[in-house]
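User: Let's play a game. I give you a shape written as tokens, and you guess the letters that built it. Ready? Here's round one.
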């Protein structure tokens, strides 16, 4: 089996919500991993999202994140 890339498609809102969670998770010093490779993958994904997303640099980031979360979250009936 040949090694090939996997492409995952996220909406911009999903990417922003995931980036926020991932950046907080990656800052926690006591995260438990079975192997350092798991941590490396999360760092790499965070870096890739950071290079794509412009919202974290915006002055209204908190507002934009709140909007993204509202769009992504399940509707409560």
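Assistant: Ready! My guess for every position:
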């Amino acid at each position: 089996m040949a090694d090939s890339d996997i492409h995952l498609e996220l909406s911009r809102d999903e990417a922003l919500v995931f980036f926020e969670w991932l950046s907080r998770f990656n800052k926690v010093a006591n995260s438990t991993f079975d192997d350092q490779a798991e941590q490396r993958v999360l760092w790499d994904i965070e870096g890739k999202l950071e290079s794509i997303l412009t919202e974290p640099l915006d002055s209204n980031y908190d507002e934009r994140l709140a909007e993204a979360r509202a769009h992504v979250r399940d509707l409560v009936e």
